[in-house]
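Input chain follows. Return structure tokens only.
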Amino acid sequence: MPLPSDGGFAGEMRRLRAVTPERFAIGHSGDWGAKDALLAGAACWYSVVAGLLPEPAALTRAAQQGTAAEAERINQAFAPLWALFREFGSFRVIFAIAEILGFGGITPPRPILPLDQARHKRVEVALQPLLQVTV
């Protein structure tokens, strides 16, 4: 699910729960809203982040356990990255992260262009708080 445009996660979850089977897993893919969606009862967070940054992706576990303070702590570490996701698109930023983490010189498929050097440097800076996250 995309994130609700009005930020009303609790209302969105009530609306969706009313029209889906009990065991239906509702998840969101809007990374910067993951914490709020999970705390409102979403079952999962669909993001490529967990594949590259498994420790900080523990945001999911913290929110699902209802530990809002821990979820907020981890989400704050993500804040600079979320800003870049919104500015450049998560797809392009994730390719830059993969390169920064040493997974090789992979580039997004055309017509999507990789981030230029200045933007790549901004991703490096945004990544630093996430590399310090412990769970």
